[in-house]
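S2.1 Query sequence (Glycosyl hydrolases family 38 C-terminal domain-containing protein)
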Amino acid sequence: MPPRDKAPFTQDDCHFIREKIVSGDIKTEFDDKDQWMNSHVLTFSGIDSSYALPDNIAIITLQELEDGRVLLRLAHLYEIEEDKDLSVTATVELKKLFPGRKIKEVKEMNLSANQERTEMEKKRLHWKVEGSYGNRHVSRGGPVDPKELKLELSPMEIRTFIIYFDGVSDQLYYAM
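Output structure tokens follow.
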């Protein structure tokens, strides 16, 4: 393998090095698996360690966009009256999902994240429905609290957000 001047390794270079390490031709600093495991962080969480998402909420999408913004899509996993404890509105604390990052702005988007929800709501068609379903109230989580950065999800609701941070040149996560 030719020497490199800080150029990235190619995929072939990585395969070559891995084969040499596995075959024992190259000795690593940690030939003992336990020694290596004890000297490295084996888990990582970007979420505040004292915080857990509510049991009825799942992160569907967490994607860093090219300009440092983050696309976040959350889903409530239960239907109305499906479970007496989990079929309730749940609160998510955005500050605790992104510790160490200062959230500058949160915009709620439509499901495909190509239009702000407020603009979409203005264009929504309103249908007249006959029968019992017409009287049924659909519960939706309210707006994001701009100071506390908390949001609510009602049963079976999916909400999509674009989050802006101060210091957009920072990467979303750091390895160490």
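The helical segments are 11-23, 33-38, 94-97, 117-123. The chain is about 15% helix and 20% strand.
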